[in-house]
Amino acid sequence: MAKWTAKHEAPEPLEGPVVATVTGGTILWFALFVVQLPFYGWFADRGQLWWVWTCAAGGFLGLIGIWYVRGRDAALKRHAAEAEAAAAERAEQNE
Fold this sequence. Notes:
Distance between the termini: 56 Å
Low-confidence stretches: none
Largest sheet: none
Order of helices and strands: HHH
Helix content: over 70%
Radius of gyration: 23 Å
Oligomer: single chain
Strand content: under 5%
Shape: elongated
Number of helices: 3
Structural class: mainly alpha
């Protein structure tokens, strides 16, 4: 059996508004939780309470996600600034 090898390089990962996307998803999970609360008894009677608690868990995990992606975004910006400063310093030394 031959080992598989890629025929081309993988594309660069897409970067987008990650913080806004995660924040929007978190808001959506909490909104779904709040909308389902008035129907708590209906869900309980049918043994479907997991719908309500899944939305709550999604909202709280989203808060962790917001914290994570904000830190990641800050680290990426910090790294870009450091790389730019290092490039400027090298340019000054070469003159």
